[in-house]
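Explain this protein:
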Amino acid sequence: MELTGKILPSILVGELFFPHGEDGAYVTDVVRKVADQGFYRGVEIGILFEEQNRRAVRDICEKNHIQITQWGTYVMGNEGLNLTSLDPVLRKKSVERVKDFIKMGAECATKNISILSGADPGESRREEGYDVFFDSVCEIYSCLRQFGNMNLLIEPLDREVHKKNLIGPICDTVPFLERVRKECERVYLVWDAAHVALGGEDLVNSMLQCGRYISEIHLSNAVLNPQDPL
């Protein structure tokens, strides 16, 4: 298949400024400087919990026609949340937290809310995990669709090497997205070269297999040698 569409440069603020990625005032200042440079057409940031920062980022990005993607990854990790948890109480708590992110994201004109699936429950319960994550995605999307044309993005991570998430290998991810799309129209993938490589997959074949679902691309230089101290 052919890949179509425009590629616009975006900056992953939460990673490039990792020690300060959850500092709302710092992130807001970075977004302001990014806008002043005039090169990047998108910013990827964490969740902004202070109203004044949400307003400031919204005004900056609307004025400069910059698209906002927000990640709740670090908050979810710090709070021990998991959208694929087989514990129904924890799963529900995790879904409600993402709904909080969506509502705050709407206040700063966020275009994309991005999530991770959560930990792989293991081969014996993996199908159950897919069903649970499917339910989580549908519940989250039901909230998200109330806010204009906001999209929900899912990033597949490696399953065996480092992150060990449920949504990982593209051969499994594509059927899952096909299933999701029957219920949730605006759900897309974030394709990350590092996690594809860590999973032992061919980068080009991976991108071609899931190209129709890709919304964002992360180009990363992963360390693939397990003996390397990095």
Observations:
- The mean pLDDT is 95.
- The beta strands are 10-12, 42-46, 67-71, 112-115, 151-154, 187-192, 214-218.
